[in-house]
Design brief:
5-stranded parallel β-sheet; alpha/beta; 4-stranded antiparallel β-sheet
Length: about 230
């Protein structure tokens, strides 16, 4: 008897009714189970009874905004992957979302095809398993954390995938195309600076205490892990 695998459950949180309906329709057609919430407080109420595998969370909402929801979930130890939607396209705004614990971001306006591709890329990493150890760090992909010089640092889903790809090729230059494939399945256009944002976020966590540089930039090619 064939048993179909459970469908990935996605909670869409946006105060724009039209966006909620559009995303619900697109994701349902793409094979996901979808619930919606109109604001941050509504989202937290839904999550009490509905165990979402992934959140699509608008950054700017009336009342409790996306940053507040993200920080609340992370403070409670909830590792659910979060795709943040933002009408702001500035680098600092994206970094703020990642620092709050978001796994990926997408700027408005966006194509539905790109959003569903980003969601599928995050869903492919549920759950991530495995571990790797290097001279100064131990990466545990299951818990999305790294132990660096004895201190535990929590990572997001995509930061974990990025570090795993770099560490498995430690000492070697990993091309940008390989890293983009590992994170998004090749859905990010080459001109996008998404990869640079995640490298910057990962560097700030690994090197923020003033330690030696662990992720080196090889201009025009990619990155190399030397930790």
């Amino acid at each position: 008897m064939n048993v179909n695998p459970p469908r990935t459950r996605v909670l869409v949180v946006d105060d724009d009714l039209q966006i909620r309906r559009s995303l619900e329709t697109a994701l349902t057609l793409d094979g996901f189970d979808v619930a919606t919430a109109a604001d941050g407080d509504d989202a937290l109420r839904v999550l009490i009874d509905w165990d979402a595998d992934l959140l699509i969370l608008d950054l700017m909402m009336r009342g409790r905004d996306g940053l507040s929801v993200c920080r609340t979930l992370r403070a409670a130890g909830d590792p659910v992957p979060i795709l943040m939607l933002t009408a702001r396209d500035g680098l600092q705004d994206r970094v703020i979302g990642l620092d709050a614990g978001a796994d990926d971001y997408l700027s408005k306006p966006f194509a539905l095809e790109e959003l569903t591709a980003r969601v599928r890329a995050l869903a492919r990493r549920l759950p991530a398993t495995g571990a790797s150890t290097h001279e100064r760090i131990h990466l545990d992909t299951a818990s999305r954390s790294v132990v660096l010089d004895g201190a535990t640092i929590q990572l997001t889903t995509l930061e974990t995938a990025l570090l795993a790809c770099l560490t498995v090729n430690a000492g070697q230059v990993v091309p940008r195309s390989v890293l983009s494939e590992a994170l998004w399945g090749g859905t990010v256009a080459p001109r996008s600076n998404s990869l640079e944002v995640y490298v910057s976020s990962l560097r700030s966590k690994l090197e923020g205490t003033g330690g030696p540089r662990m992720i080196l930039t090889v201009r025009g090619v990619g990155y190399r892990f030397v930790g």
